[in-house]
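Box S2. Input/output pair 1.
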Amino acid sequence: MALTLKRCAVLLAVLSAFMVWYSCSSGPAAPEPGTPGFFWNAAKGGWEAGDWTATAEHLDDVLSKDADEYGPRALPWALVLTSGMTDGYMEAADAYQKGVKANKAGAEPLRREMVRYHDAASRLILQFADKFESFNKLNLDSVPLAFAFPKGSAAEAPTLLTVAMGSAPTAALIDSALKQTLERNMILAAAKAVGCADDPAKAGQIFASPDAKVPRATFQLAMANHLFAMSEMFAATKLDDSEKREILCKRAQDALKSVPESPDTKELTDKIAAAIKQLPKKS
């Protein structure tokens, strides 16, 4: 896979840091470039810098080279990362879709961004579904959280609020709003993963614990919720693909099978059943 400029910059920064560390340390040698350990550290560097795309690519490199050793740590991280990015693009697309309806005369630039974000979210949803299948094969009672809680703010991007009213922003504001929205949703995705959807501060404390972990059932329920939320991207009012929506709904149902029954699982189960019932009947 060709390296993006941002990814090259992250890799060079990580390599430089390793060289400085190695020259000043008498400890064990740093992982050599191209090894799973090297890409693992590169993923940490990308995550720290808020470069979500580079982080995802590095985690893919890790899993392609050594899924057995790194899988229990890399897959949960990749799922949180992918779900956060997906939610961010979906939130941005929703704002632009509202803007298109609010400003029919000037809808075209808003529609272009909406389509761009829908496409990005759609690609990420497929990646999430594949990674979740791999995660399901792991025999884990608790899920390791081998990454730091995301930095930044969970506040909504003000620009998207004006976009939803039909105002087309400048290119600079478009990029800034997307960055803020991805950052916000990364924080929310990490909080949901540990059962603290409404309390990011509490979630941050869980991640700050040494050897941080979360019960498998808690993580599994969060992923089931993500699968169902992702299915809504394929509703008739958006990408209108009932087949993909049904697949995601059923995968969310399957994810719930290993989660103990609770008010939260019942609520989600009812939502999924209602969504499937509304799908067009197959001929």
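Box S3. Input/output pair 2.
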Amino acid sequence: MEFYKHPWDKWVGINGLNFHYLDWGGTSDRPLVWLHGMNGNSHHWEFFARNACNDFRIYGLDMRGHGDSDHAKEGYALAKYILDIAEFAKTLGLEKFDLGGMSLGGRNAIGYAGMYPETIKHLILVDIGPEMPKRGSKDLNKRVLSPPLGFRSEEEAMEYYRQRMPRASEEILRHRVEHGLRLNWADKLVFKHDPDLVWSTGSAGKKEIPFVWECLSKITCPVLVLRGAESDLLSPEIAKRMMDVLPNGKYVEIPDSNHYIAEENPAAFEHEVRRFLEK
């Protein structure tokens, strides 16, 4: 398969759902799978993949309930996500691969890497740990529980993302609008993700925290933990606890970024990821 800057849109049936994923092609025999954050989609990795897809075989998965993948009537428990990742890797024939995830995707990656440690070469966790500090949890709930129902125009949507990601370029913000929203019957731009995902940030998610810490303790591969220097979703204290648990962990703070490191400081993000994966 030839190398292209723009990915192929592909679909695969997993666990009774139709999943969308992006494949950047190339001739590299080094698979790298990326998992996006809450209410996101696989297109968020495009700005990294454009530069790195000649060095890695990059895949971006739209997790259940996100992007162009099916919504799940049976819900969004961590165990469901782990099985999805396992079946995705099996279907694509990925016996051993690098895995990265941001926010919710990183949490799911911890779960998968803990349950299937023999399949992961390197793990990258982007601004996420097994739990969040109280302030970060409250801020996340505020953003997730009270988003606008939709937007009357692309510019109105752009302004919404400008407020959330003040350091991101206009190109990246427009990319968010293009791939994260759809036009509904009322001629309004609405989010693609399943509204039922909101319950993941409440008591249902908190019940899973001990299991996520347990999974973290079972990870044997090298792990890179990236934190946005101005983020409140991963505290330095929780990051330190993660380093105490991980036998081969590395912690890096990315300057000039909040939670959305790959989009707010893409150059620093790419630099740290490449340096980590080269080892």
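Caption for Box S3: The two ends are 26 Å apart (CA to CA). The chain has eleven helices and ten strands.
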